[in-house]
Amino acid sequence: MADVAQAAGVSSATVSYVISGKRPVAEHTRRVVEKAIADLGFSVNTVARSLRTGRSSIVALVVPDLSNPFFAQLAASLQEELRVLGLHVMVCDTKADREEERAFLREAVQQRFAGVVITPFRLVAKDFLVLSEAGIPAVVSADLPFGDNDLVTPDARAAIRAALTEVTEAGRRHIAMVAGPRDATGGDPRLNLLRSLAAQFGTALPGRLVVRGEHTREAGAVGFERLMRIRPRPDAVFCANDVVAIGAMDKAEELGIDIPGDVALIGHDDASFASLVRPRLTTVRYPAADVGKAAARLLIERLDGRSVRRTVHVKAEFISRGTVRTGP
Amino acid sequence: MADVAQAAGVSSATVSYVISGKRPVAEHTRRVVEKAIADLGFSVNTVARSLRTGRSSIVALVVPDLSNPFFAQLAASLQEELRVLGLHVMVCDTKADREEERAFLREAVQQRFAGVVITPFRLVAKDFLVLSEAGIPAVVSADLPFGDNDLVTPDARAAIRAALTEVTEAGRRHIAMVAGPRDATGGDPRLNLLRSLAAQFGTALPGRLVVRGEHTREAGAVGFERLMRIRPRPDAVFCANDVVAIGAMDKAEELGIDIPGDVALIGHDDASFASLVRPRLTTVRYPAADVGKAAARLLIERLDGRSVRRTVHVKAEFISRGTVRTGP
What we know:
six-stranded parallel sheet, four-stranded parallel sheet, Rossmann fold, 12 helices, alpha/beta
């Protein structure tokens, strides 16, 4: 909604005053802002009304791991988009624990939050009933659809294909994965996608080459060590996300395994960690800023009265750095 | 408050049920838990009562930069400590903007939050009046006292002295600093502390060797570049925090300046970034987990009826890695 301020050529604060009516705005300015809002497809009146009817101005962003910079970047983007509407984002870290996830959904209902944006980790569809019963809009950011909620989801097929191309061109044949836990919501869609695409490259990804763990640095180290004991030893390891990949790098250094010389490593997300480590992590970028922007737009449309379910696909991109072949 | 569960030899969930009364607990178990709570200096009844009197169970953690892993770690620790009391932490990222900081304080009042833990960046003491008038306890985590609020603050003198010892033993004489912005709350206490201790080492820190900027990676790069144009060129650069230091490392690589060969670099906080970069960042560890624990305890005591102001000092520690002399 920084878009509105830009389109109208006014400050974000002015847009906010027009919407909230909290301060007087010159009639001409008001018309310019209202036109900009309408041009961008929003109806200021319904959004404002939904916020006046006893709702709080808080949007909860519920994530499984706030120490993963991907989610911090998502929070920043969501907040930037929502602030000119007078909405405030508060971030809830569930530590991937289902009871914590449910507790935050209950809080959202009790406090009459304006909306929820959530990356579920162990929730199941029925856990969302409390929100829909209370009329609180929810946007899900996840790899798979989730009940009747609006969805922001990656389009990662081309990026994974590009990763597999580089991996196979580098002569790697024994592909393995450090995947997420078995009981996570939807299993691990990143594993399923990798497996189906790997088959097209003539490389299988059998169950014995998949280890599972939480999305943590520690689990990445443990999972990588287990893979390195398999013979023939895997020579390319895909990871559930960048945090897991960095745990794998810790362990490779400890074991004296050269990356990428002995083993190629591929992360997921391109969180800020990925370009800090040496060698720089080759990864699949899922742009957190775009995810936040899409989630904000879906939420605003809901507050604006849209009733049909929508899905937005955000394109992922293969980022070649230094952990598949020696890079810059 | 994981302490309570441990002392009582029961699960955190059981402690929570005893406090909230939401589920029945065996009489014996209840007595054990209540004794553990009392032994640790808390009164379950007053805490529970304050939460029943129309207060929400939300504690807002208000921070200037959620993309700094220090604050993500602080959030995790605070949450861990407060959850057994049935309190939920929601994190508010102000982007170091005073209007955002004030907006979150107003939200805390409107939503009748149970408490606020805050690292103020541009707030001034009178901005806190809305909280004290509403009877909402606030704990400040900052380098300097802040009005009448409880305070968690670093005790960093010994750590900075150790840093200066290593820097001077490495033969460095031209010490400089990339400090925080001039208009931040309290100026930059880290600059003042460094300056007063540097004098004891016979090295001055004149104004021309101090550059200022936001606590961001970009500002770190810009600040470092400005310092590198000064003649004689600084040979040791202290940074306001690790994020700033990593920006300085980006720029050093770009300019072909060797760290630590040409310039020694010292961060602050030991956020998770610090051990990821190569060379690993020498820094002053301010343990986020201990800060969160102390803040939780101060907040619980306030909910428990304490009325006098308290300050907790958390010891910082010098962590020698590879950016002052070549390290492991």
